[in-house]
Amino acid sequence: MHALDVDWDHPSDPPPGPRLDHVHAYTSTAGADGHLWHGVLTLLLTTLDRATGRTARTPLIYGTDEDRLIVVAAGYGAPQHPAWYRNLTAHPEVRVQVGAALFTATARTATPWERDAYWEMMAGLWPPFEDDQARTAREIPLVILER
Questions:
Q1: What ranges make up the beta strands (E) of the chain?
Q2: Which of 33, 104, 105, 133 could lock 29 by a disulfide, CB 3.0 to 4.6 Å apart?
Q3: pTM reported for the whole predicted model
Q4: Residue 113 CB: number of other CB atoms within 10 A?
Q5: CB-based contact 132:138 (threshold 8 Å)
């Protein structure tokens, strides 16, 4: 079995209660409950933990551009990139759930040009991304997911 086929939430980096509730609602209803969250669309991103080899799911707000999905590694403006981002930079093959659809994708960090082009769109979808960027010295990466 490929490691991305394991259904697991990483215990050493557990999501806060509301995030865990979001993941469980999303998976138990095939996205009927959870795809739309606070007026924005969310997906579930499953990454392979770079240290343990286990998988972890993270709900993320997403935007689209043709066949691409775009997510933001904001991490609430923390000084370090979120664990899911560090995981996918080590293991770019990910699993994605958008509503009821499940598929594998390749994740990559947006180029500087793509980041400039997509940042406004993503901040328009979720304005708190601008607050997150203002809170941290790191440039918040955008991630492109392609089937």
A1: 36-37, 40-48, 55-61, 63-65, 68-72, 93-98, 101-109, 142-146
A2: 33
A3: 0.86
A4: 8
A5: no
